[in-house]
Amino acid sequence: MNQYHIYEKIGKGKHSVVYKGRKKKSIQYHAIKSVDKSQKARVLQEVRTMHALDHKNILKFFAWYETTNHLWLILEYCVGGDLMSLLRQDVRLPESSIHDFARDMVVALQFLHANSIIYCDIKPSNILLDENGRLKLGGFGLSRRLSDINKNPVTNLPPAKRGTPCYMAPELFSEGATHSTASDLWSLGCVLYECATGRPPFMDSSFNQLAHDILHNDPAAIPGASPEFSHLLFRLLDKNPATRIKWAELVEHRFWQTRLSLLELPPEPALDAFIQLHGLAPSREDKAVASQLMRSIRESVDLTRLSRIALSNLEKEEGVSDYTAAQPAAAGGDITIDSADAELDFEEAQDDGTAEEDSTMPAAIDDSNLIDQSGRGAADSTVRVQQHTRLGAAEQTNSCGRTVGQQSIVPAAATHATADELPTVAGTAQPGSHHGGKHAAGQAAQPPGSSSSRVEQAAGSSQFSTAAVAAAAEQAAAAAADASAAAYPNAAAVSASDTAGAAAARWSAVLSLLWHPSDSAVKPIVANRRIERLPDLTWDAKSLPFEPLSLQQMLNSDQGELEAFLTHIYRTIASSAPVKDKVNVLSYFESLCSDTNAANVLINSSLTVLFVRMLRNGKTPLLRIRLASVLGLLVRHATYIADELAGTQLVEILTEALRDKSERVRRRVMATLGELLFYIATQQQDSGSASVQDTSSAWGITPATVAAVVRLLKPGEDEVCQHYAVKTIENICSQGGEWASKFAVQDTLVGLMGIYSSTKTENVKATAASTLSRMLRSSPGMLSGVLERWGRPLLLTGLADSSSKVQVAAVNILNQALSQPEAAPKLAGLLSQEQGLLPAAMGLLDHSLPLLRAKAVISIVLLCRLSPHWLLECCQQKLVLHMERLTRDKDTYTQDAVALLRQEMSGAVKHVCSGVADQLASLNSKRSSSSSGGASLEQLQVVLHLVTSPFFRPAVVDGQLVQMLSGFLLAVPADGPEGEAGSAAEFRNTLLHVLEALSQQPEHMTAFPESFLQHLMPALCSVISTTSSHSDTRFFCLRMMSDVLAIYLTDPDMYSAVLAQQQLLQPQQAALSRNSSSSSGGRLHEVTAVLDALLREHVVPLVPVLLEQEEPMPLYALKLLGGILEVNSGYVSVVESLQLSHCFFEFLTLEHPNNNVHNIRLCRQLMISGSLSHEQLLQLAAADKVCAVLLYAQQNNVEPFLEPVLQLADAMMARDASDMAAGASSGQLLHCFLGQLLCFMDLCTHPDAAVAVAASQCLSQLVALFPADTAGWLLSAEGAAALASSLQGVQLEGTAGPPPALQQHLLSAINTALATEQSAAPSLPDPAPLLAVLLSLAAGAEDAGVASAAAEAAERLGTMQGSM
């Protein structure tokens, strides 16, 4: 993948993300699809299919790659996006567009079918559009080859296992159905229907209702559709695959404007066999009952079973996806479909024991209920309750109307019993009995699956709940100032605004996000199929000495029936019957133990006491296995266990049984013991009625019990038994507190690391890693030793592991170590030694699991607090791009983490700047710099990364930062000792780019004007005036200063020329005015005063020096001064005081290098202000120079010069006219411009409106000053034609019409010329064309002034024409 540049995200699916990319050293763009490795089989199927295809309407496949966490497909880039996005924007398409799209789809689909490929997943999201609007089929993950379908007999066909229900053909819901060309054509019809209506023909949020509609209902008619299109949809959406349109009919259908060619298609024996099996093909004599043929398929569809399978598969999906499209519905047995694009899996799970356990997010699993320790498992709890409700809807009320959940069935457990004794099953709590207590009564009042179950009790009992984390964060806030000082040792000297309180608040925010609720979520131990795939329970009902009841029958039994039933079981087990008979009864009894209500009844009966005694005394492995299994199931599902069970020495017996020679016995015993220990721990912490010591003593939990569990972690033990032991420790450590500390010993760590490092089973490795993480969380004092001994294999390999659960554990350990001052130094050493650790952590930012992305962000936060060096490393690995992408992440935890990082960057920048300041001080004091010092200067690159990011910039930029950066500009040495000059030069270059980034953000300049004007601008002036500075540096600073001043001077809220002139001319009066102004006006006064002081004292005095420098310094100096004079002409006096006025007119010669647009504009300002006298202008030959420049610009098409030089000419003529009126000029300047009359006239027809307006202004003024000399030519045939053309604006580009100013100036010149007596009559031989234009303007001009002047000119011209 290092051959490609990856750009923005252009699409996202459940398991994949698509980016725009480009192959390095080429201009070829691709769509780069990143797919989670859990979808490897699907990706390989897609690769195999697309690799062999080459068609204009099939998405091109180029290559695929495999990395640690993802599979990458390099595909053709289609700029038009997918059809689904197009339909979301346009909703409906016209039939002409549908025709073209349909043609492309049909051509592509027939090509696939001709090549023996069934597409299986036609839907808008899989149909792409290129830049020409051509459709291309993509997404071949579900496609199948006909050879794979046809090679099996019909009875062994693989089912249509996966699909998008809204586009699935009716037959695919039937048992034994398979995809075919017919089902693809149905899906094609659905897509065409959606193009016309904006939705598929069948759509419902309920899967059951959707499937029912597809099977039984007809789609609604499309209003306004042509008969041809309606008929095509009718034939495509025929519910019977036997009578549905075939390719021969489709290619010749009358809907196509041109007939399509028919390709040779392979046979489909599987489809033919399915049609024959269900009798779908109508005979010639039976066409009248064709509509009845689908009855067989409809009757064969079991929607309840399909829903159950799909729901189960949804719940078993790895926790790496957000099921935003399809979710379990509120109603039992149904699935909610929120999007037509939702895909479901209808493959019934096979117990192959290969499922991967990944509990990184709270998700339901296939064999057990999730125990959420955080109290945030609402979504999963809802599913669990619904499942219980569905499975036992009838069991909540018995035949007599009695609710089972309201029975006080808390049997008295006997300590001794014989074969003749009956099990006690009390219907009500006896007076004075322990079972009539508050806990027992409260528990018994809960219905099945209620929130009082141990699952829910555990949710509130965790030591690591969200509330506990928040409380810990608040407690840590008091010490956060010290922690922050340790992370940022110089931060206190940097800013008074970055107070200890702010640092404490930031650290508290870090702690609150350090752990996610899923970090304390656990799963049951007993019957966890991800630990061990157990065979299905079997028993011989005929061999049972009693009539067996189903679970529901038992729950519906009345008191007497229940007692009698359990008595039969008790007597059979306690009798001297053969072992095989007892095992048979226990196997049956196990089937009754997986319900909460049943478990509550059975575990507190004397049956359990019997089982415990038999487990202790039994010798037969098979019997011990069944006994331990029954006890484990009862403990797992019970929500209340009476104290009497503790007196049976159950824990001691289970502990002793762990030494059994049979590994199968040890497995069952360890699972049961683990479940029991977890139950005891959660109940003790939840109730708080007894101490851990008292509870341990009551249950007989001794150090030997803990040692027995830990002993199973040693090498050589059965791996399944080890997994049960590890799972037990994981669950208990998730609780934290004293129970977790019992297992937090060195032997446990050694055993867990041994399992983690050596096991080849991914589930075992994942559980071991999770257990390590949770144990270190509960016992943070062990963290330093773990890092020192196992840091590399635990972190480096863990972060890069293929299991997301291992990655979560590794990143949790990393974050915990980074957050602990005592562990951070060891981790810093490890980070320095292992170059791959940081890239592995950064790689998680691209993970498909939101939880891992968020935790990776938190890792970066903590790394930045550890040292700015790591922040620089992260920035160099595209941290900014990652964060800007993650800002669009919808996951709340990720959003909180990204916001935390953004907030943290403020303190990090202060710390970086503090280190830079110290190093600059060292350089300037001529002390030898250390390597760390050079690194300090290099860290300024962090600031550059952050201030150039739209996401981070608002958080890090403030007035203080601007001040510090300005100080760096003054402090960085121009030269230094060998070894320092290079780093100083690189630092200066970085600093200038940081300042440039700031100078391009007007919002920051207006927010912090004092910092920019009082610190940055003087610093820039200082560098510019220092001749020892490099010329490139000086120019960079000059350009930056010019840009910043331009923003301030042109912002009316920042600068007022009126106030500035008051300040310049009458400082005392301006000060009084400023003091008496309002608060809002006061800021304007203050900024204006500061800006004027800057201009007078620093900026304008630089101009003479800059004019002497090499290019382009003079150019920017002229631009800067010209801009100042345009805003505030009062600075002309400052220019005069510097004796610069004559210099600018001297630059007007064609040969002078400073003869540029900025100099011309500057001369105009000086001319308007009257800076130079008439004699000085004559002495400088100013008019001749202006005319020469004008003529040169016109003849050589120097477009940028035309408008400013015309404006200068206009200003010069206006100035000389004013002087003539005052008797101070003889008009010599004006006479120079008479020779430019033709030039002015020609430029009036210039295509640039601004140039034409400026030329017309000059022409009008020249005619007004010299009417006798100009009227004759103006009213000549050539002049009149040019005037008529200009008045109409026929030459102008990009405008609706000629500007009124242009027309007014020209009409003024025409009226002046017509009023001249000597030239009126003989000059214009044919005034009709000009007269027509004038009359048109007089009648239709929108501007009243133009209409009036045109009417006046037309009247005069008409009079002249009449006199002729």
Summarize the topology:
Layout: E1 4-12, E2 16-23, E3 29-36, H1 40-51, E4 61-66, E5 70-76, H2 83-90, H3 95-114, E6 117-118, E7 127-129, E8 135-137, E9 144-145, H4 146-150, E10 162-163, H5 181-197, H6 207-216, H7 227-236, H8 247-251, H9 269-278, H10 295-300, H11 303-316, E11 326-328, E12 335-337, E13 344-345, H12 378-391, H13 438-444, H14 454-461, H15 466-487, H16 491-494, H17 500-514, H18 551-555, H19 559-574, H20 579-590, H21 596-603, H22 606-617, H23 621-637, H24 650-657, H25 663-687, H26 692-699, H27 703-711, H28 719-735, H29 737-743, H30 746-758, H31 762-778, H32 783-799, H33 804-819, H34 824-833, H35 837-843, H36 850-866, H37 868-876, H38 879-886, H39 892-924, H40 931-938, H41 940-947, H42 953-956, H43 959-971, H44 980-999, H45 1002-1007, H46 1009-1025, H47 1031-1049, H48 1057-1065, H49 1067-1075, H50 1079-1099, H51 1103-1107, H52 1113-1127, H53 1132-1137, H54 1141-1146, H55 1157-1169, H56 1174-1179, H57 1182-1195, H58 1199-1221, H59 1228-1234, H60 1237-1243, H61 1249-1265, H62 1267-1274, H63 1277-1288, H64 1300-1314, H65 1317-1323, H66 1328-1340, H67 1344-1363
Antiparallel strand pairs: 1-2, 2-3, 3-5, 4-5, 6-9, 7-8, 10-13, 11-12
Helix pairs in contact: 3-5, 5-7, 14-25, 15-17, 17-39, 19-22, 20-23, 21-23, 22-23, 23-25, 24-25, 24-27, 25-28, 28-29, 28-31, 30-31, 30-32, 31-33, 32-33, 32-34, 33-36, 36-37, 36-39, 39-40, 39-41, 39-43, 41-44, 43-44, 43-46, 44-47, 46-47, 46-50, 47-52, 48-49, 48-50, 52-55, 55-58, 57-58, 57-59, 58-59, ...
Biased composition (Low complexity): 440-453
GO molecular function: ATP binding; microtubule binding; protein kinase activity
Protein name: Protein kinase domain-containing protein
